[in-house]
Write a structure and sequence with these properties.
The protein is of the alpha+beta class. It contains 5 helices and 9 strands, in the order H-H-E-H-H-E-E-E-E-H-E-E-E-E. It is 20% helix and 33% strand. The longest helix is centred in the last third of the chain and has 10 residues.
Length: 140
C-alpha cells in the first residue's frame, strides 16, 4: 500500500494498470517476453536537465550510470521525488529493436511524468529529467 505523500513512478503505475509487459493477458518475465534475446545490456544516465553528449562523458554523469542486464522491467523510473508516473518505457524500445533485429541503439528521452500532487490528480509542470540510454542486444 502506498505511503502518505508517496508519489508513484512509471513502473508502479504500470504494475497497477491493466497493461502488461509484452503480453496483454498476463505478466511475464523478461525471458518469456523476449525468448529470442540471449544477452542484453542497457546503460542509462538520468540527468535533471538536458545535457550534450560531451557533458555526459564527465565523471559526475558517468558515476550515475546504471547498468541493467536481463533483470529489467518495462520501465526505468525517474528519481525526481516530485514526479508522478515518471520514467520511460525501456520495454517499448526493446520491442522495437527485436521487431527489426536491431543490435544497438543510443538515444535520449524526456521523462514522461509530471510534477504534481501526491495522487497525480493535480499537474504543476512536466518533469524536467532526461534519460540517456545505450542498449546492446545479442540474439540467440
Amino acid at each position: 500500500m502506498a505511503k502518505k505523500n508517496h508519489i508513484p513512478k512509471a513502473s508502479e503505475v504500470f504494475r497497477n494498470s491493466e497493461h502488461f509487459f509484452s503480453n496483454l493477458s498476463s505478466k511475464v518475465t523478461f525471458s518469456e517476453a523476449f525468448p529470442e534475446i540471449n544477452d542484453i545490456k542497457v546503460e542509462v544516465i538520468e540527468t535533471s536537465e538536458p545535457k550534450t553528449n560531451e557533458m555526459l562523458k564527465e565523471e559526475k554523469y558517468q558515476k550515475n550510470k546504471v547498468i541493467y542486464e536481463k533483470l529489467i522491467g518495462e520501465f526505468i523510473d525517474c528519481s525526481n521525488k516530485f514526479c508522478y508516473n515518471g520514467g520511460f518505457s525501456i520495454g517499448e524500445i526493446i520491442r522495437e529493436m527485436v521487431s527489426i533485429k536491431q543490435t544497438l541503439i543510443e538515444g535520449h528521452l524526456k521523462c514522461q511524468g509530471y510534477e504534481g500532487s501526491a495522487k497525480g490528480k493535480r499537474r504543476y509542470r512536466s518533469c524536467v529529467h532526461c534519460f540517456y540510454f545505450h542498449v546492446e542486444i545479442k540474439y540467440k
